[in-house]
Amino acid sequence: MAKKKNNVSLAFSNDQVKKHVAAIHTSGEMTLLERKTANVLLLNAYDALLTKRTHTLPVKHLCAMLGWDESNNIERLQDVLRKLASTTIEFNMMEDGGKEVWRVMSMLSYGEINGGTCTYRYDEYLAERLYDPEIYATINIGVQRRFDGGYALTLYENCLRYKTVGSTGWWELNRFRRIMGAEAALYDDFYRLNERVIKPSIKEINRVSDIQLEPEFQKQGRKIAAVRFLITENPQQTLLKPMIQDDHAAIRESDIFKRLLEHGIGERLAILWILQDEERAKSVVEYVEARAKKKQVKGSTAGYIRTLYESDAVVGKTPFEAKKEHEARVKTEAEQRKAKEKRRAELEAEYMRERTNEAVNALSLEDKRAWVHRYIEESGTEKAKSYNAETAEFRDRLERLQFSAWLRKQLAPKIKPAEFKAWLKEKGHDAKKI
Predict the structure, then answer these.
(1) Facing residues of 157 across strands?
(2) Are 77 and 59 in contact (CB under 8 A)?
(3) Is the separation of the CB atoms in 88 and 105 below 8 Å?
(4) Single pTM value for the model
(5) Angle between helices 32-45 and 267-293 (to 10 degrees)
(6) What is the distance between the alpha carbons of residues 237 and 353, in angstroms, rounded to a whole number?
(7) pLDDT tens digits for the chain (434 residues)?
(8) CA–CA gap between residue 122 and residue 49 (Å, rounded)
(9) Which residues fall within 8 angstroms of residue 403, CB to CB, at 6 or more apart?
């Protein structure tokens, strides 16, 4: 079988991964789990990329960040690391004098799973490139977890960097297939490529992410020769944000987070611990602090805290431990309440989309002209160069999409409890459980 190539995310900021566009090709088609794992491993290692060659991450934390509930499936994780170690990254870099230099290396130079811990390394040159990307797109790990399709996540990552300019520009079809990892012979047929890769990916991106895509195709004779994607903000992004973004601001304001930092635990590691098991993080800190007061801690408290947290050791009882059962019950109730709120937010988003569609479709020609006039006043004539006053339409597709997104925001109705309740009943949902 011919080798396939795919694109990969390569660096990050806070809980977001930054994608290096100079390294746009990787050998081998990556599954959704492999692609997500590459991003999470980089997230974990980023702070120490220039100072450490070897990085570690507890397997249970890795699985939690992936949104994967098979932490006991060590063989599957071994397969993922094996694939990442055999996947090569190609760099086409411009150096002094305008000379183009090609380099190739493996995504991971080493991987190990031992005692519940994943250990891995990056080549020194690759680590330097990952830490200092020249051009990148920002990918939220919370958004990543919502993707179910590998092609969809790949397309999302490659389009996100062009969000500010509104279009990817034309991609020759063979290059597009190479970027997507869709180089199987069956995708020589554009109909199959479109039906199995392009359309499903766009549908998923528009449903779960913070951007919306619309494809355009360029013909050469009777065949499709190139594709580009028009990019706009998701008009429902304010409804999506509570579901797709990680609310780390609240964690950073918490007492336990501040105490972990005071002991020398890094920000990202502290966040990981709190997301995974906040109760254990509190318990460990209180235990170590109690022993430190009695001068029973040798070395740094940070090292002792990390050793205890990442092991299965049972820490001594503290006032916190005495209340553990009660707090566990409170936590469970809070999680159930959060799940209920998330479900309600999803249904409210669906309700808003339907009502907004109805409002848009009900506009008369004169109404639409009035809205366009208001849009031009707010956004400027630069965004309405192709507007046709007679038809109240924009000839340019990008301008049309931008106006449509703006219009939907204006027409989005406020949710009225009685109407929303009636809509839920119509859709077959039990309003009492929402």
Answers:
(1) none
(2) yes
(3) yes
(4) 0.44
(5) 50
(6) 11
(7) 433 333 333 333 345 544 444 433 454 467 888 888 887 888 778 778 888 899 998 887 787 777 676 667 888 899 999 999 998 877 655 455 556 677 888 889 999 999 889 999 999 988 887 775 443 344 555 566 778 888 888 888 788 778 878 898 899 998 888 888 888 899 999 999 999 999 999 999 998 888 899 999 999 999 999 999 999 987 655 443 433 344 467 788 889 999 999 998 877 778 877 877 788 889 899 989 988 998 888 877 887 887 787 665 666 554 555 567 678 878 888 888 898 888 888 889 899 999 999 999 999 999 999 999 999 999 998 989 999 989 999 999 999 999 999 999 999 888 888 888 888 888 888 877 77
(8) 8
(9) 372, 375, 383, 384, 394
For residues 310 and 399, what is the distance between their CA atoms, to the nearest angstrom?
53
Secondary structure in 3-state letters for 402-425: HHHHHHHHHHCCCCCHHHHHHHHH
Residue 383: what residue type? K
The Cβ of residue 306 has, within 10 Å, a number of other Cβ atoms equal to 20
Whether 6 and 179 have beta carbons less than 8 Å apart is answered as yes
